[in-house]
Structure formats: C-alpha cells, structure tokens
Amino acid sequence: MDFGESFQMAVKTLAASKLRSGLTMLGIIIGNASVISMVGLGEGGRLYINQQLQSLGPNILFIVPGNRETRRLGGLETSRNLVLADAEAIAQQVPSVVDVAAENTTPGLITFLNRNANASVIGTNPAFITVRNFTTDQGRFLGDLDMQRNSAVAVLGNALAERLFEDQVALGQSIRVNNVTFEVVGVLAVQGSNLGVNYDDAVIIPITTQASRLVGRTSPFGIEVSFISATARDSESLQTAEFQVTNLLRLRHGIVDPAEDDFFIQNQDTLLSIADTITGALTLMLAAIASISLLVGGIGIMNIMLVSVRERTQEIGLRKAIGASQQDILLQFLIEAVILSAAGGVIGTLVGVSGISLLSLLTPFEATASGAAIVLAVGVSGSIGLFFGVIPARQAAKLDPIVALRSI
C-alpha cells in the first residue's frame, strides 16, 4: 500500500468519528492559539514600551537622585539631592547639551467652580516642552518671565481640561490648585503616560511657583527636583553629554569617589535595552507556559490513538490477514496522528491570530502575529503528533493477526 492510499484511508477513518477527532484536536488547538497569542502579546508589549520610551524625547538623558546601587537593591530611603540650580548649571556649562528640564511632581486637588479633580501637579521650567517633545493644543507653554516672577499660571493636560471645563474654553479661566489660584494659559495636546505620570491628567506650573506657593523649599541647597532631563545635540553626543554632566555634578556636590555618587544617569538607549531584555524574557516565559498545553494535547492524541487501536483490533487483523505489512499499519496510524495534530495546529493558528487582532483593537498594544511563532507552533504541533503517535502505531503494527481475528 502506497502513501496516497494510506492517507486516504486515514482521512476516512478520522471523518467517520468527527466528534472524537474534534475533541482530540482541542488540546492542540488551545496550545497553538495560546503560544501564538502569548508571543504576539509579548511582542506587542515590547513595541508599546519602546514607543513610550521613544516618546520621552530624542537623545535624552535622565539624571535621577540617589545612588544606583541603592536603587538596584531596592532601598526605600532615596536622598533627594538634585536641585533646580543643578539643572541650570548643566544648561549653561555642558556644551554637548541643548536643553535641560527640571521636574518635580506632587499630588494636588484641582478645583474649578464646583468641579474637583485629583491630578499630578508638575513643577518645571520652559525647556520642558522641548526636551520632552510635547506640543500645546491651545494657548502657550510656560515662559522665562513666569519663572522669574513666580507667576501663578498653569498649563493643563488634555484630559484634565475636558474634565474641568467640558465644553467651555479653558484659556483665561481661573482654577485652584491646593487652594491657590492659577490662571490657565495653555492646554497640552494628547501626550499619554510617561515614567509613571499621566500628562493628559496633570497640571503644569512654573517650578519656582510650586516651591514658593505650594510645597515650600524642602532642600537647603535650593529648589528640589524629582529628576532632571537633558537633550544631547545628537545621538553621537549622548556618551559625551553623560560624561560631562557626571563630572559637573560631582564637582558641584563635592564628590571625589564615584562610588559615593548621589545621582545616576540613564540614557534612552540604556532604557530601551533594559526594556527589550525584560519584555523578551517575559515573552519566552509566556510562550513556555503556553507550550505546556501543546504537551497536554500530544498526550491526548496518544491516549485517543491507543483507544482507537483497541477498538480497531478486528480491522487491523483483517488487513494483516489479506497482506498488509507492519509498515502499512504503522504508516496509517502515524498519518492519522499527524493529521490530527497538524489540523489542530492550523485551526489553533487561526484562533491565535484572531485573538491577537482582537487584542490590538481592545488594548493599546499593537500586537502582531509573529511569522516565526506561527511556523514554530504548527511545526511543533505536527512533530508532537508524530512523536506521540509512534507508541500506538507501533502497538497496532505489532498486533498478531491470529489474536485479532479471534475477537471477530
């Protein structure tokens, strides 16, 4: 019997027991769909995080207070030793840096008439909008005169402006931030979340005004900041800018031993590398967990095929009695197992791709079906069918025709 005849016979046999064949394929279907969906989800998460980091601004450096080792070990007590004067010194004395923004974030209660909203209050300087690559939708951003005069002016995030003013014009309106009156001079375009802060739901004010009217001076060295962000001239200048900023801050803070640094610097490339490493590991973990269902599906195929051998003892005995060889019987049962697993793999792929498309519609993740994941999942499912089909196929091939015919 050639391969074509064995294939036709295997298809007819499986078609005769549609419910059993469908249930047997279910484990493979779930396994393939899970693997493809999990890999797609991981890839979508990686793209989403990269987009968020890219949106922070081009060629950007982040100077954060505290020792790198302390933060790495999970230290809760982080010294707050960066001040506005540090940011101003970087802007004036580091030639490889174009713009520098200082930022300090505190919670606040924002009030307009009888409407209240809890939002982040971000104190910063005019360079913030350039460094972070933001744009205004209405009005203007903060200016140098606002900083010098400690002006009570505010720029609202897009979502916060809609919540407070609904259909009214926000520009020129007066709001209260922690019971201090501010004039709205601008509204940001939609920006989304960055570094744990939702800028669409925030109010931005001059950092000097924040220090003098809202939080006070909490550092004896000047106006305290949460972190400083700086833009290098170009991507080739990032390393130079990091080196120059490090030396300047060590000089200003009186640090001789680098191990005693009370700040550390992260550049965008480093953040992207860390994000890729983490999301890659998570994707592998998710795929490994989902692959367990493929193994369970393979075991299910083996169990059903073993039952099928017992039920088809008479058929096997008759075929061997009329001249079918062990290889013919072995081939037919292997083909049946491979058909079940491959068909389950194809259906599971369709389900997985559909799930990824639905995920892209319902979440901000731009999840995509990885071609490599599809080929791997279908190939593995077919191999699983072949592997787990060997035992029942060998059992059927070795069946003694005399013993089989006695059961007729």
UniProtKB/TrEMBL annotation:
Q: What is its main location?
A: membrane
Domain MacB-like periplasmic core residues, every copy: 21-247
The annotated topology with respect to the bilayer is: Multi-pass membrane protein
**Membrane-spanning intervals of the chain:** 281-308, 329-362, 368-391
Q: Which UniProt keywords apply?
A: Cell membrane, Membrane, Transmembrane, Transmembrane helix
Domain of life, per UniProt, equals: Bacteria
Q: Name one Pfam family in it.
A: FtsX
Q: Where in the cell is it found?
A: Cell membrane
Similarity annotation: Belongs to the ABC-4 integral membrane protein family.
Protein's name in the database: ABC transporter permease
Q: Which organism is it from?
A: Leptothoe kymatousa TAU-MAC 1615
